[in-house]
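# nightly structure sweep
# worker-07 picked up a monomer target from the shared queue
# config: single-sequence mode, recycle default, output format = structure tokens
# input follows
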Amino acid sequence: MSTCTTASLELAEPLTATAATARTWLLLEQPGPWGAKALSHSRLDPAVAAALSAALEGTGTRLALIRRPGRHTDPQAPRRVYVAHTEPGRSWVRTTTLADPAELLDLDPAALGEGDHRGLWRPHEGPPLVCVCTNGKRDRCCALLGRPLAAELTASGIDTWEITHIGGHRFSPTLLVLPYGYAYGRTDAPAVKEVTEALRDGRLVTDRCRGRSAWDRPGQAAELAVRELTGEDGVDALRVTDTRGSAQDAEAWAVNVTHTDGRRWRVNVVACADAPPLAASCGAALSRQPRMEAVAVAQLP
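# output follows
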């Protein structure tokens, strides 16, 4: 079993490597209330929700519901749909409107998960999409903190959607920025504005960043560790190229990170076994929360 460094235990729980894992996101507009299990506890046809969930399983494509902040529109109106691929250097967003969400069952989720949109729909033109978790039935902090943030961002002119559960309730307000797939936590409107303005210039703000959803959690920790070491802020400059578990320790990994200029690093990442118990969500009992930490970064020849 691996342990955290003493320094990390003396601080509030780090945000690093806590982003949900998904190479591709499929976002379906669903106005109206969302329950704790939003896909089946909403006005979305439960049979369609179940069929979509089954079709996407294991494909690298993750489905989430979205809605605009504020008053909900006519539930019978056409739905906005986005599909976004998050791998660096080949990220994209495609969009359309659908009269019937069942049309999504005709998609090829495996191809989308691999980044092949096959000319689907049309490219999203405009700034990055900002999706703030507001699923209050899943966790009340997402409603208490996420909804006001989404409303403030919208009022400031940032293209903002409310989104169902993206993990990490305890980091509320938490959000996802597409197509890059970077998640942020414990954030506010000025910080989000800084993030979106930087992304328009091809730069990444690492403050309050939880990781890039294209990578697994060891990969997220490794990428952010290399950025911290080098100061690299190019949003697509780094790629996780290999993650190997340790034969001696089931909670340790060696992760290779490659720069577009050819530089490479090996990052040793461990799952911290001695982290103090924390509440996974508002009002939840204390429990052990898995945590990743990069304990060594070495540049390779």
